[in-house]
Design a protein that fits this description.
Two copies of one chain form a homodimer.
Chain A: H1 6-12, H2 22-31, E1 32-37, E2 42-44, E3 52-58, E4 61-66, E5 72-78, E6 83-84, H3 86-91, E7 98-101, E8 105-111, H4 112-121, H5 123-149, H6 152-162, E9 165-166, E10 169-171, H7 176-182, H8 187-199, E11 204-206, E12 209-211, H9 215-229
Antiparallel strand pairs in A: 1-8, 2-7, 3-6, 3-8, 4-5, 4-7, 9-10, 10-12, 11-12
Helix pairs in contact in A: 1-2, 2-4, 4-5, 6-9, 7-8
Chain A binds a DNA duplex (30 and 30 nucleotides) through residues 151-152, 175-177, 185-192, 195.
Chain lengths: 230, 230
DNA sequence: CGGTACGGTTGACCGCGGTCAAGCAAATCA
DNA sequence: TGATTTGCTTGACCGCGGTCAACCGTACCG
């Protein structure tokens, strides 16, 4: 457990709590708890009660819905500054998803009641949370659109293009199996499609590193797929 | 356009604005606009600016994301008391979905700025909106889970069981094509699956009316499907 | 009335993507 | 260092669900 003194600085850098005045920051600091989570450990499981929300300080967290057969569908990834778990907290329902650390992570946990009080004192906090939830809704709708309206190849290409890249090179942030789940595919299919793109000379894969020599060509490939469907 | 006097009564019955005091209600009433939408008309299209939110007073609205080929994927249905469009309003982004009336409907429209002011005066309104967005997030996650982790038959059975029924009889609220889209299916497949359930003696279909003589048997059928997958 | 547009059903076909299994390379550990 | 596990790839196979087409009943309309 790190010393409590870190908390104020940590909080003030989170999008959710930016621009709080000193008083409010002190209040929130008192209400927050640091949670250290090792890689592969679960933050919470499906069915756990949701009494508060988490903010990622460092590390990365995977939100997924588990299936009966041990499979799982990754809903979203969270990195530093992201908040998660709010929706279930507001609903007063147990989590229907599970959260797992993809790296050693440091989280901030805030009790629902303390957050309620903070909102009463500062409506702008509520607005920021509304904005945050809206973003999440937006990405979920986009995901649904992606899964329903695009085929596997389109989804893969779109993912490759959506990731940050420098010098025409992008990195898979996690294992390919996890990426596959996020894309609604099996690892086998993802592997095959990447191989297909490699054969077409559009990318070259080396472990987690992917070289994209001609971004425009890759984009063109995706639109060609789209046209084929229409 | 109906007389303005209706607005106060309408608003005070919406979940979002319940428990407002007279002053606040008067303020909101002044900020609200009634919008009449005929069946098949669009409330907004993809790309329209989102300057406010809608609340359904009477009627029903379909939220869908349009595809290139004229297809569409239904995201959600909204009935009386439901609010929609908030997420895009808070994001200050144009709509990425379209809203269409499934019946002649009466909507209430509230300007973003007026709502902002109302939140500042009454944090409980913000909390109610947070709860509303949370519900939406919840159902979206559930949808993603359904589409990714369950096959077509399971989705159909689950839909049949999720709809309100009396005397072992349920009604399709809309055209089967629209239901099919919401379930991520083609109308053909939905038709076939319903026929299959009929052959199995689990349901009997007559137009929009579906008789479910033995609910438990139908539930059992769904779990059997689940087991087969695992 | 016949014409037609629409929603729904049915049949024939097929391709996408999942499943199962084997094999391989790198990481992890005794 | 060898043993074991984990991540990834590849091949063979196949079934679910989509596509395309024809057809049917009903509602709507001139």
């Amino acid at each position: 457990m790190r010393p409590k003194t870190d908390l104020g600085a940590l909080l003030s850098h989170q999008p959710l709590f930016r621009n709080l005045d000193a008083d409010q920051l002190a209040l929130m600091t008192a209400a927050c708890h640091q949670v250290n989570i090792e890689k592969h450990q679960f933050v919470f499981h499906r069915g756990d009660p949701a009494n508060g929300l988490y903010v990622v300080a460092v590390g990365s967290i995977k939100l997924a819905v588990p299936a009966a057969n041990g499979q799982e569908k990754v809903i979203e990834f969270f990195g530093p500054g992201d908040a998660f778990g709010e929706a279930f907290m507001f609903l007063d329902k147990p989590y229907m998803v599970e959260a797992q650390a993809l790296d050693d992570s440091l989280l901030i946990w805030i009790d629902k009641r303390d957050l309620d009080a903070a909102i009463d004192r500062d409506p702008s906090l509520a607005k920021r949370m509304l904005a945050g939830l809206s973003v999440r809704l937006h990405t979920l709708v986009k995901d649904i659109e992606t899964v329903n309206l695009q085929n596997a190849m389109q989804r893969v290409v779109m993912y490759l293009l959506s990731q940050p890249r420098e010098d025409g090179e992008m990195h898979f942030p996690f294992n390919k199996g996890i990426i596959a789940s996020k894309l609604g595919l099996t690892p086998e299919t993802l592997s095959r499609l990447l191989h297909q793109l490699t054969d077409a000379g559009l990318i070259s894969v080396d472990g987690k590193r992917v070289l994209i020599p001609d971004v425009a060509a890759l984009e063109h490939r995706m639109y060609a797929e789209t046209a084929r469907i229409s």
